[in-house]
Amino acid sequence: MTSSFAIVGAALLFAMGLAVVRAVAGPTLFDRILAANSFGTKTVLLLAILGFLVGRPDFLDLALVYALINFVGVIAALKLIKFGRFSDPKPPIGT
Q: Is 90 a domain residue?
């Protein structure tokens, strides 16, 4: 049972390597962002498998936090690409 999880972990590491290659060599910026998001998702899976293999269920909490950071980071990067800034360009009401 443990060896099958180790094999899946090794396959995830290989897929993460491919995602890094795609993030570096992607022809467009959106390909690079998609590869970074894919890398983050695979990292979450690897953390969950690693937590199971070493018997530390608190690794699942780390995986969930990393998933949330990955999601917010991708949304922020896409907003930066679309608008060129993070702040609202409209002045506040009453000024």
A: no
- The DSSP secondary structure of 51-69, one letter per residue, reads HHHHT-TTHHHHHHHHHHH
Mean pLDDT by 10 residues, the chain (95 residues): 82 94 91 93 92 89 94 90 73 64
Number of domains composing the chain:
1
Q: Please enumerate, as own/partner, the contacts of 49-58 that have beta carbons within 8 Å and a separation of 24 or more.
A: 49/5, 49/8, 49/9, 49/12, 50/9, 52/5, 53/2, 53/5, 53/6, 53/9
Question: Taking the model in full, what pTM does it have?
Answer: 0.80
Assess if residue 49 is contained within a domain. yes
Q: How many helices (H) and strands (E) does the chain have?
A: 3, 0
Chain-centre distance for alpha carbon 15: 13
Q: Per the domain annotation, does 88 fall within a domain?
A: no
DSSP state letters, 71-91: HHHHHHHHHHHHHSSSS-SSP
